[in-house]
Input
Amino acid sequence: MSRIVEILSHPHTKMTIATIAACVVAGGVVYYMKKNQLCFYKEKPKKWKKVGVISHNLWIFPIKSCGPIVLNEFECSNLGPENGHLRDRTFMVIRQSNNEFVSARTYPRMVLITPRIKGNIMRVLAPGMDEIQIDIEKLYNNKEHLTVTIWKDEATVIDCGDEAAKWFSKFLLNKDDGFRLIFYPSKEPKPHIVPKGYKFKTADRIDTGSLHDETSYMIMNVNSVEELNSRLEKSVTPLQFRPNFVVKGPDAWDEDYWKFVKIGNDAVFKVIQPCTRCSLTTIDPSSGERNKNEEPLKTLRKYRLFPNISPTSPVLGIHLGLRQAGTIRNGDSVYVSY
Output
């Protein structure tokens, strides 16, 4: 017994115990941060400047390339905006033949598909179709996984069943098969990520989300959209660019210079890269019809091309990576660091 007391009282032993205790505490902090889906960020801004407020609505797009669900508030996690079972871009339509994703770029009527989520159930509606219901809780219990491709990235997902596959195939292909609907069940970002050549090269794996093309969040500046509209014959709305939130107040294109964004009291984001725009922006979200003149993409190419990002895809809006979790509400103040 005296030998044990002697060992425990030795200075080196005390240091070792202190070190172990510190590691246990640190491990507990990391576990808490991970459990609550918070992120460390080293480059904390020294100064914040209020530039405006969150305006319009908050949008979550449960099914990639389909219509949004409008909210007044949502929680921010590493995978993107969420509210219970309602999560951003965790459902996706794929080709049955090769498991590659399909989008409204090729099938514009996808934007007319309207999901609604209450409790465990997602209802899916579209013009001329009977609604279907998908029990999300049951999907989590499905142990049969498959691998799908989003551009060159891979994700492990769950098939949503034959009824959903037939419904989406019928609406988009006018056939009984060809497409499947899949679900991303994990709370962690997809593991297989191909480098995309980010301008600032600051994206971490946690920024890539679930079934997103780029990052988990996208914000737009109302005045940038209005400046674009001043050059168009037919104006467009922010929804045509499919952001999660919109800020009112900053001068047009001020977002080109932001490094960090804080919304409300807690949520902090790092600016990862400007959002390069594609043909999806030419589709009217209310009609599902493509603009015959390729607007607003054609006009954006005249003055919003950044050669060091993309020689052909113009920029509007910015991709964000979450650095501190929080709740965002419509009307929240927006602060930035330059």
In short: The longest helix spans residues 11-35. The chain is about 20% helix and 30% strand.
